[in-house]
Design a protein that fits this description.
heterodimer; A: alpha/beta; 5-stranded parallel β-sheet; 5 helices; B: 735 residues; alpha+beta; 6-stranded antiparallel β-sheet; 20 helices; rod-shaped
Chain lengths: 149, 735
């Protein structure tokens, strides 16, 4: 497990937020690699090796997916549904990372089998702490399933 | 002694009048005959003593027989006594003649004559005839015997004296008989006269008119009782002078059937029995009952018609009144039934349109009116708009949005303006009636106000093909129904209002939820950026990485700007629900062209062709807001043109929707929208394409503004084929 390259998929339409996540992860050396997608459609294309992502070797399946809920083109919940309805992809832990604290969104996420629901905190230290803990938990402590390509 | 004798001399009386009369005659004849033997024997005793034996032999049996008959008469055996009296009387004289001088003596000549007369009065003509025959035969027999010498006849006549005495006695008996016979005739005459007077007074005093008509269909009047003057004002003389007068005064409507029945009964001899009308001399119409029978003689020969006219005008009037009463009751029952049905509809149907169309049809069909319609006053209270109407003409007027101005130019307008019912019983004469070519058969018209809580909210028009169709009672009943309808309209309005309020509240709730969501997501998003990069600014300064510092700083600034514009948009959105400029009638074409000028710069940049349909309708609404709608939709259209080489935007109308609102559209030939996003495009801050600038409020604003105008907005599009945004708006009120 140690030394194995860990791939994080970040689906986030807000480039500033993506920058915050990536920067914090890099600082804490949480992940070796982060792949960022601006909308739900390109994220699904990657996961299903469609369009520009047909090469399996260069586009390996991520170990964990950080998913925003409100996304252009294909919404976050629809991305979540698609993943969890796919026999192979549903094993990948999906952590919802969003600004929304609405109960409706929390419920919809869990009912669609989200593995975790995290609200982006307002504040630099809080954001860093969350990403830190997230990294330790999902990428450190958590044992990942062996996902076949 | 004297009273007993007096009683004996009084003729007996019986219950039977005929018998009493017969007994009276017999009584007097017997009284006279009782005296005859006494006088006869007395004569022989004094003057012809030599013949006394013979006289006594004749007198004693006679007197015994007289006494016997007298007793029989008193006992009531009048008929038998009469027959015996005549028979013995005849036998007496015949025996006297046979034993005396035969046919030559007064016994045969005068005695037999007296018997014949007596038989006539006691036994009638047949008795008299029989006695006459017997007398002739007896006389003939005596002459035959005498001629052939079979019998010796003492041809020496009685002495003159004897003949005179016997004759005198017989003369007196004849005198009695004559007296009795004259008395009988006199009595019969008197009785007949009394009876005629009785019958005539009966005939001419009973409250009916009696007449006698000759035979045949062309019967002439030969008698008519004087009451006829009271009946028809013509005198009996007028009837008798003009024997066909009765035919002339028959009511024209009844004449044919009366004459037909008259002819039929004349032919068959059936009883004539009819009720018909007559026109009196003073031009009144009276009803008579005419009953006539054909009077026939004993052998069945028809003689004349005997008829009776009875005045039954009062009875007929009573019957007519009863019929009127029944018709009034029937009408009232119908009214009540209709009122009940309208009431049931009013309380069970909450859909206003359905309620009104049910009500007008109920009233029209139950009362058999020509047309019923309901107008409701518009919000501005300037016009009455037809909301429900019966029949094809009603449908035609409804589809043409038939409306009438409130005021004196129409009955409906007048009725609403004054809050009072109005009737035109023959609309041709009522100048204020709105001439309606769709209702050509209207002859009377009524307009009833619909009043709810003291306010006139509309009017009901009821039209009939019959002139003067509405009575005051009808108005009361129909006004009751109109009141019920008005209340039901108010109820339905309140219900709709409540439903609208509920749906508006639900909308507000959803909006609030969206707002919370927006605040929790969209507004929080820039805050996360700002706070996050503020932290990094410190690091940048410490690391003296000025390039990253600048970059992070601009991220913070952009996030703040974005937050500001989001806040502005939210403010704008919240204003739409609150600040409403007074609605006005607007030319949609004009404001579209104004808007295009307003954003001409942006349009030119994209080289888009914007085309506006000619003759777009006038609409009603908030001018400033509607300009915003057009602006947003055109901006949206040119924003999503993609790489279309010939960008085109078209603004126009496709007509009207079911609610009578005009359907407008803004069409582009840009990138189009996948049908799965057609709902989401209108959501607050929903952006389908992050590459296109904007907060995602534009279509939300459009939706909000159109909804405030009671309109709908929707999009029709396929990916890559352009998009058409449709929206509906109310038409101008004074179009």
């Amino acid at each position: 497990m140690i030394g194995e390259p860990i791939l994080v998929m970040l689906v986030e339409d807000n480039v500033d937020h993506a920058e915050l996540v990536i920067r914090t992860m890099e600082e804490h050396r949480i992940a070796n690699r982060v792949r960022h997608f601006l909308d739900g459609q390109s994220a699904l294309d990657y996961l299903f090796h469609r369009g520009e992502y047909t090469d399996h070797h260069h586009n390996p399946r991520p170990h964990v997916i950080l998913l925003d809920l409100r996304l252009p083109r294909v919404d976050g919940i629809d991305v979540l549904k698609t993943i969890k309805e796919d026999d192979e992809l549903k094993a990948i832990p999906v952590v919802v990372l969003t600004t929304s604290e609405a109960e409706k969104d929390v419920a919809r996420a869990y009912y669609n089998h989200a593995n975790s629901y995290l609200v982006k905190p307002v504040g630099f230290e809080e954001f860093k702490k969350l990403m830190d803990d997230l990294g330790f938990y999902w990428l450190g402590w958590n044992t990942h399933p062996d996902i076949k390509e | 002694m004297v009273p007993a004798l007096k009683k004996l001399l009084t003729p007996p009386a019986f219950d039977d009048e005929t018998r009493t009369h017969q007994a009276y005659i017999l009584h007097h004849i017997l009284l006279a005959l009782l005296a005859v033997p006494v006088v006869y024997s007395g004569y022989f005793f004094f003057w012809e003593r030599e013949n006394l034996d013979r006289a006594l032999a004749q007198s004693i049996p006679s007197e015994l027989i007289n006494i016997l008959l007298f007793v029989m008469t008193r006992k009531g055996y009048v008929k038998a006594a009469s027959i015996l009296q005549v028979f013995f009387f005849w036998l007496f004289f015949t025996v006297v003649a046979v034993t005396g001088i035969g046919v030559r003596g007064p016994a045969y000549i005068l005695g037999s004559g007296t018997v014949i007369v007596t038989a006539g009065i006691l036994l009638g003509e047949r008795g008299s005839f029989f006695i006459t025959l017997l007398t002739i035969l007896a006389g003939g027999w005596m002459v035959y015997q005498e001629t052939n010498g079979l019998r010796f006849v003492n041809i020496e006549p009685d002495s003159g004296m004897t003949i005179w005495v016997i004759s005198s006695i017989l003369f007196m008996v004849m005198n009695v008989v004559q007296y009795l016979s004259a008395r009988t005739v006199r009595q019969a005459l008197r009785r007949a006269q009394a009876s005629e007077i009785q019958y005539r007074s009966l005939l001419e005093n009973i409250p009916t008119t009696t007449y006698i008509n000759g035979l045949g269909a062309e019967a002439l009047t030969t008698y008519i009782s004087p009451q006829v003057k009271e009946l028809v004002s013509y005198t009996r003389d007028e009837f008798l002078k003009d024997p066909t007068l009765w035919k002339k005064i028959l009511h024209p409507e009844d004449r044919d059937k009366v004459l037909a029945e008259n002819e039929r009964t004349s032919n068959t001899g059936d009883v004539f029995q009819m009720e018909y009308r007559l026109i009196t001399k003073d031009h009144r119409v009276i009803w008579v009952r005419d009953e006539a029978i054909l009077v026939k003689s004993k052998d069945g020969t028809p003689l004349y018609w005997l008829g009776v006219w009875t005045d039954i005008t009062a009875r007929k009037h009573a019957e007519e009144q009863q019929a009127d009463l029944i018709s009034v009751m029937t009408k009232r029952t119908t009214q009540l039934q209709t009122a009940a049905e309208v009431s049931r509809a009013a309380s069970s149907i909450l859909d206003l349109e359905k309620l009104l169309s049910t009500a007008v049809e109920l009233i029209r069909s139950h009362f058999n009116y020509y047309y019923v319609g309901i107008f409701l006053v518009n919000d501005a209270k300037t016009a009455a708009v037809l909301k429900a109407a019966t029949g094809k003409m009603g449908a035609a007027m409804l589809s043409s949005h038939h409306r009438l101005e409130v005021g004196d130019s129409s009955m409906i307008g007048w009725c609403i303006a004054h809050g009072q019912s109005r009737i035109a019983l023959d609309v041709g004469d009522d100048a204020v009636r709105f001439k309606n070519p769709l209702l050509p058969l209207t002859r009377s018209e009524m307009a009833l106000p619909l009043i709810s809580r003291g306010e006139v909210i509309g009017s009901m028009t009821i039209q009939s093909e019959v002139p003067s169709a509405f009575s005051p009672v009808d108005i009361t009943a129909l006004q009751t129904m109109a009141d019920q309808i008005a209340n039901a309209i108010e109820n339905a309005r309140l219900f709709t209002e409540r439903a609208n309020l509920v749906s508006e509240l639900e909308g507000r709730n959803a909006e609030l939820e969206r707002f919370t969501y927006t605040v929790s997501h969209d507004l929080k998003s820039p805050l996360v950026t700002i706070r996050g990069f503020l932290g990094y600014l410190h690091q940048d300064v410490k690391a003296n990485d000025m390039m990253r510092f600048e970059r992070d700083l601009s991220r913070i600034a952009n996030a703040a700007d974005r937050m500001q514009s989001l806040l502005n948009d939210l403010l704008e959105l919240s204003r739409i629900g609150r600040i409403v400029n007074p609605p006005e009638d607007i030319s949609f074409e004009k404001i579209t062209r104004e808007t295009i000028e307003l954003i001409a710069g942006a349009i030119d940049e994209t080289h888009a062709m914007v085309k506006v349909q000619e003759n777009l309708p006038f609409i009603r609404g908030d001018r400033v807001r509607l300009i915003e709608v057009i602006q947003n939709l055109i901006s949206n259209a040119i924003k999503f043109m993609g790489d279309q080489p010939e960008p085109r935007v078209e603004i126009g109308t496709t007509g009207f929707d079911a609610d009578g609102k005009v359907i407008l559209f803004v069409r582009d030939n840009g990138i189009g929208i996948d049908p799965q996003y057609h709902e989401r495009v209108f959501g607050l801050f929903n952006r389908l394409n992050p590459d296109i600038e904007g907060t995602g409020i534009g279509l939300t604003l459009v939706k909000r503004i159109i909804e405030v105008h009671d309109g709908r907005v929707w999009v029709e599009s396929q990916l890559g084929t352009g998009a058409t945004f449709f929206f509906t708006l109310p038409i101008a009120e004074l179009a």
